[in-house]
Amino acid sequence: MEYRGYDSAGIALVKNGDVEIRRSAGKLNRLEQVIATNPIDGEYGVGHTRWATHGRPTEENAHPHRDCTGKIVVVHNGIIENYLELKHELQAAGHTFETETDTEVIAHLVEGEFKDDGLENAVRRSLKQLRGLFGIVLVHADDPGKIVAVRNGPPIVIGLGDDEFFVA
Would the pLDDT of 29 be above 60? Predict the structure, then answer.
């Protein structure tokens, strides 16, 4: 996991409808120290190492990012070319942003599109608004046991094991 990014890292785990996130600036071993000090437990989740393209390499800008409800979590590699335009529209609609990244826009878009038809359909609707090349992985605490991965451009690799799945 460390090769893809080197200025920050984070992990989010979902358990019983709650999302816990641990993030840190710096290399992956710094995140390991954070987790050793403040353990995290969950049934499924996402992790990410970051090489900053939008926003400074800080703990706040480290992935994963949440929506306003705290239930949707997203990690992303790539660039959302129209993120500033989308961010301004979302802010005008009442969304509050906590980071300088383009990734957080995705969480808020999906939040606005999430209905009773599941995370994957909310993601499908949200993707129509994004411009750029990217790989995205999302989870929603209210749509348990599901991890949604999408791409536009770069490849995504999916690994299957005994009772485990990986997306890179």
Answer: yes
Q: Does the bond joining 64 to the residue before it have cis omega, within 30 degrees of 0?
A: yes
At residue 100, the pLDDT reads 86
CB 100 within 8 A of CB 42: no
> Phi, psi at residue 69, to the nearest 5°?
-80, -20
Q: Answer yes or no: are the C-beta atoms of 43 and 15 closer than 8 Å.
A: yes
Instruction: Give residue limits of the domains in the chain.
Output: 8-167
Q: What share of the chain is helix, strand, coil (3-state, %, to 5)?
A: 25, 35, 40
Beta strands in 18-163 (DSSP E): 18-25, 44-50, 65-66, 72-80, 132-140, 147-152, 158-161
What span, in angstroms and rounded, lies between the C-alpha atoms of 12 and 140? 11
Please name which of 60, 16, 49, 52 lies closest in space to residue 137, comparing C-alpha atoms.
Answer: 49
- CATH number listed for the domain at residues 8-167: 3.60.20.10
